[in-house]
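Bump. Still looking for Leucine--tRNA ligase structure tokens.
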Amino acid sequence: MKYHPNEIEARWQKYWAQNQTFAAENHSDKPKYYVLDMFPYPSGAGLHVGHPLGYIASDIYARFKRHQGFNVLHPQGYDSFGLPAEQYAIQTGQHPEKTTRENIARYREQLDKIGFSFDWDREVRTSSPDYYKWTQWIFIQLFNSWYNKTTNKAESICTLIEHFQKDGNANVNAVSDDNIDTFSADDWNGFSKSQQEKILLQYRLTYLAETEVNWCPGLGTVLANDEIVNGVSERGGFPVIRKKMTQWSMRISAYAQRLLDGLKDIDWTQSLKDAQENWIGKSTGALVTFKVLDSEGAQSNVEHFLAGNDHSGYEINVFTTRPDTIFGVTFLTLAPENELVAKITTEEWKQSVEQYVDATSKRSERERMADVKTISGVFTGAYAEHPFTKEPIPVWVGDYVLAGYGTGAVMAVPCGDERDYAFANFMQGKNGMQPIKNIFADVDISKEAFSSKDNVTIANSDFLDGLNYKEATQKAIAELEKLELGQGKTNYRLRDAVFSRQRYWGEPFPVYYVDGLPQMIDAQHLPIVLPEVEKYLPTEDGQPPLGNSKEWAWSTAESKVVANDLIDHKTVFPLELNTMPGWAGSSWYWLRYMDPHNKEAFVSKEDEQYWQNVDLYIGGSEHATGHLLYSRFWNKFLYDRGFIHQQEPFKKLINQGMILGTSAFAHRIEGTNKFVSKGKIDGRRTQPIHADVSFVNASDELDVEAFRNWREDFKEAEFVLEDNGKFVVTREVEKMSKSKYNVVNPDDICEEYGADTLRLYEMFLGPLEQYKPWNTAGITGVFGFLKKLWKLYFDDKGLVVTANPASKDALKTLHKTIKKVTEDIEGFSFNTSVSQFMIAVNELTAMNCHERSVLEPLAVLISPYAPHIAEELWEKLGHQDSISKAPFPKFNPEYLVESSKEYPVSFNGKMRFTMELPLDLTAAQIEEIVMKDERTIKQLEGRTPNKVIIVPGKIINLVG
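Sorry for the wait, here they are.
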């Protein structure tokens, strides 16, 4: 009876689907365990062998926990809104919903072939109206909430309105816009409804504001920082510029400290926690005010300010972590986007500044942060007054300052900061650049800045002289507060998240506008479904694609979407034209899996209380900041408002590494259409061209005819072959990608070797968290292992399993494997488990082991890794239920306790034979047995040894 994986796997996949084998119960006497994968975006290319890596790992763990008696929730769905489907729709004219549906069908087919134990009855799709109804509902809750700094949580906007009605806003301790005018209760009660709404927008957790955004003209939309790579869009490679737009934003910054604090309570790798901490970027210091001196004086001469002229009224607020160095300030630098730039720049410098600001807008913030070598900036012609010395400080614009960090302005202390030092030296001698001041005692700054906080003694700093970093910091803040020109402050790099996208394929906002102010559609009328449009591009006048819809207005009388030509601004109003970003639907999806068919709530309180949160989350490290921060933010908000009971969504998180592709390169001689084989390059200048790996065999030999027919420009190419008539390519390990033609389709592997082989091989490649190259040649060894496993149970005639008692060696092998595999799964060391399986099967084969007492638990052991073959073995052993319901074998240490020892018996130090003896024998008893052994008698040939050396449990040596 031979092993036929395709027949076995198809049968068991059908069985699992028909019997809903992996359906989780929402309430059970079993302990719960929630295993979650970061769900995929279903692209048209389908899965390659790198994609299932994390899914296989999570599936092994989910199956393991079921064997341990847990009620396991292991769901799957699709992150199905986003740019790729829309770009494809623009190119082909097909509706994104159609291509997304087709892509999902393809993904589902591939996922099923690999044998995952997903509870498919809970599938979610973010682009389904039944799902995004609740994304819209959560948006409405955010709009109707504010962050109370006193209670340190989000509260209903109604509590803020009550406060305004009774006491005004003077004593409100809220996260809000800056520079809100103070008003009394009488003022508030006297405001018009629209005035009140404008004020509330300054406090709401989601709000409209003019914001600096990453605008991508090529895609016609705003992009998040993590959607930009090297200054261009990750999708399509289009240039990105900085631009001010009115956008929906979310006050994630309100949760900055709680997002930091929450990291202490979750089991994530330190590198993940570090990434989040760096992104949130907490720092302590002072907010310092520099008053801008009047521009008229700035145009004439610096001495003019010393005469005590009036200030212009503008102030430059600077956040600094080093207030101790305030006497070392020689210039201020504004971010190019800072609105003060246009207000304080003098006529003389206006053109230069405008050109610089325009040039900087074409560089992303990430690019500017990463580029520490390029120094650029321009003087504004303006000066500001030092808060202590009253000296005029020149104001510059520099792209190393970011608008979103701090206040978008820095006080430059070149003697204490490397970037300020480099900037000052680069601009030395230019108008508006003063000499560097040294405010550190006994420190040489002639070659570099002194940025350390240790061993600092402040000098040339008036009342700070002689103080160390800590003393000087406290003293400087105290004096600034006396002058009302500064205060101690904690700052965060984390900025409010822009929440608008100028795209079609995304969640519509449940928002209409009355007199330009946003109004929420009542939750009972959700979902607001995407309308049909003829074109997915922006409108001719630059409006988002939803502007192409002829039916995108809201009737308050009928409570439904109606035709645009009915807009009268009395009962029919325009709807929001932007859509939500891709991260909207992925910021709460794990909650929907708990209760996916609920039409009354996004999740029932009972189901959420039962599942609580995700016990194990597996996904890529590229989500370390974006998705994981946004989802933690939404989770904490929902917790604050009492909708859920857990502050953190994901208890344990593991980043799987990446399976890399082994690319193939055919080398073309530069300037020609002649390709030269690897061994014939001989120093010639060649250009490596990616060749589809399907044209290359295991010996790196290229199918030249297939390569010729692959592309039109290769049809007439010449090929310089090796002496054996073959063309050999070079190889390089790269990211597996369709564009590099190094993709391996898992369907092909499943077809040839079976899904169990694929699962085992992906785990066998190396530790889960590491990057590792794919090598199809190595998969045959794993396939051979499964065939060898099969032969323990079957021969050509059928089942050979017996009820005979197992040997102690066989039981030892079994329990050694139970111990190792249990520890490996619990430690997520799946690759070493596969090695142990191979060792065990080799040992049992050598023992000719066919005993049920060993082979039955062995099938359960391997079932999380190779579930199809395990199910088949289990059934053939006579079981009616799925093997997934069988308890995991328990390790018994008694089977690993050695009762005997195989001694090497040596004569004059040379081992002649071995002898197995009980470990509890004394040296005298061992000697008696050895001396009577026929082999000893033969070796001695009648002689009596001078000495018999015996160490029980170790050695036997006869000397002389």
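The mean pLDDT is 93.

Edit: fixed formatting.
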